[in-house]
Amino acid sequence: MAKPVDLRRFTGFRAITWLCLFVLYAPLVIVAIYSFNDSTSITRWGGFSLKWYVDVFTGPEAPKFRDAAINSFTIAIGAAICATLIATAAAVAMNRAGRFRGKTASLALINLPLMVPEIVTAVASLVFFITIGFKTGLLTIFLAHIVFCIPFAYLPISARMQSVPDMYEQAAMDLYATPWEAFRLVLLPLMVPGILSGFLLAFIISLDDFLITNFVKGAGVETLPTAIFGSVKQGIKPNIMAISTLLLGVSVVFVTLSWIIGRAGQTKR
Amino acid sequence: MADNAAPLTANAVEIDNVVKRYGFVTALHGVSMQIGDGEFFTLLGPSGCGKTTLLRCIAGFEDVSEGAIRLHGQDIAPLPPHKREVNTVFQQYALFPHMTVSQNTSFGLLRLGWSAADAEARAKQVLDLVQLGQFAERRPGQLSGGQQQRVALARALAPRPKVLLLDEPLSALDLKLRQAVRSELKAIQRETGIAFVFVTHDQEEALTMSDRIAVMSAGHVQQIGTPREIYEAPSNRFVADFIGETNLLDVTVSRVADGAAEILLPGGARLSCPAALGARVGQGHLSLRPERLGITISGQGQLQATVEDHVYLGTDTQLHMRLGSGEALVVRLQNGAGAIPERGARLGLEIEAGAARLLSD
Lengths: 269, 361
Description:
The structure holds two protein chains of two kinds.
Chain A: H1 13-34, H2 51-58, H3 62-96, H4 103-115, H5 118-131, H6 138-163, H7 167-174, H8 179-208, H9 211-216, H10 224-233, H11 238-267
Chain B: E1 11-22, E2 25-36, E3 40-44, H1 51-59, E4 66-71, E5 74-75, E6 86-89, H2 101-111, H3 116-129, H4 145-157, E7 163-167, H5 175-192, E8 195-200, H6 203-209, E9 212-217, E10 220-225, H7 227-232, H8 237-242, E11 247-257, E12 260-264, E13 270-274, E14 282-288, E15 293-296, E16 303-312, E17 316-323, E18 328-334, E19 346-351, E20 356-359
């Protein structure tokens, strides 16, 4: 085999790498640092303090954030569970049902929400709910979240299912397992890493969503991202940075978990 | 069901004119065979000959396009895999990685409705049979390839299937282990008395283990017979060529009658030899087994040939020779005290009894 090209030798590789990393992560780092600022200014450093974190939990806006957080987590868990169930069923159809009419079209439909501009989905969802006479509120957020979480749950689940050879189910059926038993006792346990990974990804996507939520939420119903946006409209206070940093932390933990579980499942066997 | 009226038979499996088509490709062209109860039956052929397809049809992983597959007289072709009393040892074993050896082995029993205690006892029994009793609580991933192979065997034997199907189960093992497992497998087959249908492309495996062999090629059965019949009395060119080494010579056939033929060898000598069913007068193909040709220093013999090269193989030496008519020929000599003929030496060849056989095409 030819020696692989060493990218690091390309002119400007180092500079471009650092520029990209800087543009991507500098804002996050700055927000995280200033969340520990003792000053009320968001630009001037006034020493280290945890007071804005205390403010998030006990300050004047604390009840609003608490309700929003409860809404966010409830919706994220529920939507992620539903999306994972649907995505698992879809993955079985795509990877185990052989060839059927409209398979390619189905796959495109499952993944379409990844490609449709989110603002279009947001407007369409709102119009749809109004047309069928649904009152906007928690339920509409929940339904909308299930829909856009499906492709995110589907990707790791389907990838995992592709890596499980169908000889295991054949062996199960050869040993007198009905197709359902072969799925439940053999394929499903082998799919667990993919399913968990898909669930966590869907959860975090739902937790972070602003645009669609903002359209389909009813008056007075807030999730964390919409609550934060609401506060920012009245001027950025350092407590926003604290709550953003907390949210960032939750995201990092879940995405990392999702990745570790997905990888652990691949190396096992 | 009308099938219950089928006559009692000593056949474990009857393959009756099975055709398997994938779209425009035909993998099996009307294959028929009977596999006796308690028989070690091998499907032998090169890759793509349809042997694995046939096995998968018996297991139920493939639907047959035409024909019937009867298990102890009952047509199982319409049944799904989990309703067929056959079990499979897969080429890659397909042991469930999330279950212990014991759980793998009792899986089939529990699906059949055995109690947990009975299933565990039976699992222990078959694991002892394959000498893996002490590994019952391990995961398949913690076992060597040879041990995994034996777990796969134990798992498939545990429910006492009417027929055990084995899909090239030794191909993933290294040579030494493969030879050891061969005799072990044969012993287990005798002990359990279950009919084995064994798929392989390895003729040595087939010859050493089988009661009978079906040689397949391109979706057709070429010949069914005991290892000895297949080797010593191949019915056509494909079988003669595929099983063991052979020399195929173009000869002129002057007479065929009662399974014997009179032929004219290149060089002019006459020979009478056995003829396969379907051999005809005219141009024909003669199979000469290399180990049944003897050389004569005097130059006497039915054939004259020149040594072009020799290959030392330990117990034997292979002489690559050329006949006066230009055809190449291989002779195998057992190594002993005698000298090996030099390159360029002109020798006579004696055709021993049973070395030659006229083939049908």
